[in-house]
Structure to design on (982 residues):
């Protein structure tokens, strides 16, 4: 057995060590070399989540429900997955608005409302009270186990001394006051405290793992052995399935849910996660490292619980003390002492951070605003009063926890007490999460939701705990007030399928979210409420300037400086204003009227110390005239939205304009091209017309003048003239023809025809030309008729045109033209190949354009009118087909056209 | 910055998957009287899924070599 003096001196020695760590942390912070500015310390400080509940209570709960202790740690693991999205936004906004606590945060979101800040504070203090009492109970439980354990469990159980808890509460109050209220500027981080908390997290982890290893590997030779033995005990075998958890999967889910909210919205978690955060990027590491910590610290919970139940079989031992009782039973007193220190770390860490967070809220969001309103507190004297107020609050919070412990604590297990607080903290989730992502969530809505949720929580969880401890008649709980069971706190409206926690979470969330949403939907938020909503939902750096233009008045710079100086001291105030002047490159003249930016700066400086809600009250007390001009605000918002709308329209217009310009440019290019083509055409036509005309004229003049001409000679001349006129006629006809086809004015005769037959006709028509040029024509036609509907003459024209083109461009003697007609079920396809010079890729598209002629051919001068292929294209398109040209492999080109079968 | 948006989407997907894996009905599949390496299936399953979540979130948030430098990404919801 351990002597009492050793236990006590080790305890105080350990607290002294914590002081040293915290002192070192503060010293380093003052020297500007922060030790907490790294993601690992940040993660370990978040592990303040693991309290005496985790350290002692988890084992107790595992002994009763098997896996039932785990949702409390799986919930935070799930929530951590969303930290990168949600938590960083909260941290960012908190830095922008100098947020000092969760009450401050919610109040800021809803128009820096004093009422909301106050309500959140009340909920937090009342809701967390059981949680603090849990820690006091855990510490006194562990003290008494150490004091009174004689190696053999006694049937009388362990005596829990009330006085131990009181002393513990007082000592912790002193510690919290020493490290939590050194400065009154609460946004200046409590670096020493964070360092001490992180250190404690390390100690409790090592202690718990040590006892876990001892139990699993020293007493039981490995987990497999342990479980094998546990299987033999029916009550333990039962715990290896989910049925062991009262309330089953519904309880499992509701516990997961409330611990998801608890990890972020318990006041102390908000404190370490958000207020004490040094760098947003630390969230990156904490997202996986913190769940890993939870994972590791929970690894040995079930083995310890099972071992404890087996070792103390039959003896009346509080399962919450098994962690400590196991090493004591086996005579490992030093290990037990180390475990005791681990438990002390877990519980003290929680109490210290929680009491600091709560006292900040109590003073900034409840007491100071009220005192300012009631003029009990004069701004001139605030500095000193504020510190005393905060210290008093810390003491008050701890004594409240002690009171709850005395009234209630002894009749409940650790975890059951803690869950009551978790359900209270869950009330903060709707206004924060909805407030962050839904602009419409309004101040009145949040107020109604919070109040409703809190009332339901108090009725369904807090009230029964007083009844069960005998302070209120138990008939209030069962059957219910006035004997009406539908009003019973554990079964409202006779909803009996849930355990009390799930039941309370369900109803309170229903009322909380319901009131928040419905009231917000019918509310018309105005002014600051609307503006803060926009800033919080947007959450972007662009809005960091906040409500710069909201203050207007005729306050002098000197008044502002005086206000800040009264709160934080003349030296620091002067430094702050100098920094401001430098940053904004302005000269601060104390007699000048302060501009809006300076007013806003002052408000933020004040908020650092007294919180947003109080700062607003103080500012309005000093600024003459309307503190907050709603009209001004609306004007700003209107202006902004108008400007945004206007610029959006402008952008749209300019985009349209750009598109139109491009279209115009394209059309213009095309027109220019056409113009050039037309000029060329006119040139060609004139040339083509003049050549025959010149020869006709010359010949006819000769015939006319030479009366005695040789008749043979005359005949020859006349023959030439006839040929030339025919050429002229052909030319004119083609031009007319083309314009007719192009305009679609004349629809050809539509008749059923055989394309093979048509092709034969065209081949016949061109055979003479081929013979003249000594070009070989070969053809490949299907044996059966190729039927479709079309204009026979026009199609002949197309094929003749293609063939004669091919012949014209081939070299004499060696030229080869091959025609192929392929009949598919869908379409008919005709190819005309030649082995001429081919067509350059850039020309392939354009040769089908009217007036376009292949200029740079081998033969030099152009051959036709430049209309042949354009006519072909028009005809084929009129028949619903396509025509194109491609490279013939090995020289020359292939002209192909297709005609659809549905023409039939 | 599409890469950071993609990362946020991955985290949300992981969250949904984890929520499903750790609740009814998937969880009930592990509630059987058998052992894996001597450890009851229920406990083994819970801790295995847990370890997987930690690993996956760590890998998802691993610092990528972003050419735009170490500037922190703006918070979500913007």
């Amino acid at each position: 057995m351990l002597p009492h003096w050793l236990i006590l001196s080790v305890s105080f020695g350990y607290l002294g060590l914590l002081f040293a760590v915290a002192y070192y942390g503060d010293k380093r912070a003052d020297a500007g070399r922060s030790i907490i500015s790294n993601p690992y310390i940040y993660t370990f400080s978040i592990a303040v989540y693991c309290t005496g509940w985790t350290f002692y209570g988890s084992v107790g709960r595992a002994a009763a429900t098997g896996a039932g202790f785990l949702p409390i740690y799986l919930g935070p693991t799930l929530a951590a997955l969303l930290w990168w999205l949600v938590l960083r936004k909260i941290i960012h906004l908190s830095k922008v608005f100098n947020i000092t606590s969760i009450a401050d945060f919610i109040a800021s979101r809803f128009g820096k409302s004093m009422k909301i800040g106050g309500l959140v504070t009340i909920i937090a203090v009342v809701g967390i009270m059981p949680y603090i009492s849990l820690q006091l109970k855990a510490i006194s439980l562990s003290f008494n186990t150490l004091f009174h354990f004689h190696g053999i469990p006694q049937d009388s159980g362990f005596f829990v001394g009330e006085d131990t808890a009181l002393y513990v509460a007082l000592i912790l109050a002193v510690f919290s006051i020493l490290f939590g209220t050194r400065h009154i500027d609460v946004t200046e981080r409590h670096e020493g405290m964070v360092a001490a908390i992180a250190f404690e997290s390390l100690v409790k982890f090592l202690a718990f793992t040590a006892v876990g290893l001892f139990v699993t590997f020293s007493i039981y030779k490995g987990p497999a052995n342990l479980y094998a033995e546990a299987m033999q005990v029916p009550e333990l075998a039962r715990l290896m399935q989910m049925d062991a958890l009262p309330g089953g999967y519904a309880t499992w889910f509701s516990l997961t849910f409330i611990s998801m909210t608890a990890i972020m919205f318990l006041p102390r978690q908000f404190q370490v996660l958000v207020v004490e955060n040094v760098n947003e990027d630390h969230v990156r590491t904490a997202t996986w490292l913190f769940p890993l910590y939870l994972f590791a610290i929970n690894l040995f919970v079930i083995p310890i619980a099972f071992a404890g139940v087996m070792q103390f079989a039959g003896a009346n031992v509080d399962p919450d003390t098994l962690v400590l009782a196991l090493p004591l039973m086996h005579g490992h007193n030093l290990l037990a002492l180390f475990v005791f220190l681990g438990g002390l770390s877990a519980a003290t860490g929680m109490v210290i951070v929680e009491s600091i967070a709560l006292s900040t809220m109590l003073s900034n969001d409840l007491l100071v605003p009220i005192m300012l309103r009631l003029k009990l507190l004069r701004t001139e004297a605030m500095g000193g009063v504020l510190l005393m107020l905060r210290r008093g609050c810390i003491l008050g919070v701890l004594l409240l926890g002690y009171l709850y412990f005395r009234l209630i604590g002894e009749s409940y297990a650790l975890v059951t007490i803690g869950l009551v607080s978790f359900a209270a903290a869950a009330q903060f989730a709707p206004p924060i999460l909805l407030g962050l992502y839904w602009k419409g969530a309004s101040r009145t809505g949040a107020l109604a939701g919070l109040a409703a949720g809190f009332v339901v929580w108090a009725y369904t969880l807090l009230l029964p705990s007083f009844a069960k401890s005998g302070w209120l008649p138990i008939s209030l709980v069962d059957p219910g007030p006035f004997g009406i069971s539908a009003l019973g706190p554990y079964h409202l409206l006779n909803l009996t399928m849930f355990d009390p926690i799930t039941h309370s979470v369900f109803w309170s969330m229903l009322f909380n979210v319901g009131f928040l949403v419905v009231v917000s939907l019918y509310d018309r938020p105005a002014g600051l409420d609307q503006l803060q909503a926009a800033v919080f939902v947007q959450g972007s750096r662009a809005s960091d300037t906040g409500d710069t233009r909201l203050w207007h008045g005729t306050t002098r710079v000197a008044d502002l400086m005086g206000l800040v100086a009264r709160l934080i001291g003349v030296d620091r105030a002067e430094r702050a204003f100098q920094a401001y002047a430098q940053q904004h490159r302005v000269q601060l003249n104390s007699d000048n009227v302060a501009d809006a930016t300076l007013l806003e700066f002052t408000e933020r400086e004040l908020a650092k110390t007294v919180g947003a809600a109080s700062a607003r009250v103080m500012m309005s007390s000093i600024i003459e005239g309307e503190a907050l001009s709603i009209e001004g605000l609306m004007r700003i918002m209107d202006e902004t939205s108008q400007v945004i709308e206007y610029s959006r329209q402008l952008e749209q217009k300019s985009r349209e304009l750009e598109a139109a310009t491009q279209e115009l440019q394209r059309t213009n290019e095309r027109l220019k091209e056409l113009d050039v083509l037309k000029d060329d055409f006119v040139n060609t036509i004139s040339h083509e017309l003049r050549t025959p005309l010149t020869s006709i004229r010359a010949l006819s003049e000769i015939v006319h003048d030479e009366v005695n001409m040789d008749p043979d000679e005359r005949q020859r001349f006349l023959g030439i003239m006839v040929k030339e006129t025919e050429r002229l006629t052909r030319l004119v006809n083609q031009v007319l023809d083309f314009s007719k086809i192009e305009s679609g004015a004349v629809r050809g005769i539509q008749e059923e025809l055989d394309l093979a037959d048509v092709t034969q006709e065209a081949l016949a028509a061109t055979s003479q030309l081929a013979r003249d040029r000594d070009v070989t024509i070969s053809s490949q036609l299907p044996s059966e008729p190729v039927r479709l509907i079309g204009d026979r003459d026009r199609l002949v024209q197309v094929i003749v045109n293609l063939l004669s083109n091919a012949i014209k461009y081939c070299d004499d003697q060696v030229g080869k033209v091959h025609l192929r007609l392929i009949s598919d079920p869908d379409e008919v396809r005709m190819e005309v190949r030649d082995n001429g010079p081919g067509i350059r890729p850039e020309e392939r598209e354009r040769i089908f354009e009217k007036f376009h002629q292949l200029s740079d051919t081998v033969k030099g001068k152009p051959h036709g009118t430049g209309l042949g292929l354009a006519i072909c294209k028009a005809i084929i398109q009129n028949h619903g087909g396509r025509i194109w040209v491609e490279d013939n492999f090995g020289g020359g080109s292939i002209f192909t056209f297709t005609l659809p079968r549905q023409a039939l | 910055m599409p890469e950071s948006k993609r990362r946020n989407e991955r985290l949300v997907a992981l969250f949904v998957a984890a929520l499903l894996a750790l609740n009814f009905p998937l969880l009930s599949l592990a509630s059987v009287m058998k052992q894996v390496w001597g450890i009851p299936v229920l406990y083994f399953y819970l801790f295995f899924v847990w370890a997987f979540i930690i690993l996956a979130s760590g890998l998802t948030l691993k610092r990528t070599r972003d050419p735009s430098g170490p500037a922190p990404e703006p918070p979500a919801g913007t």
Summary: DSSP finds three helices and two strands in chain B. Residues 2-21 of chain B form the longest helix (20 residues). The two ends of chain B are 12 Å apart (CA to CA). Residues 2-60 of chain B form one domain.
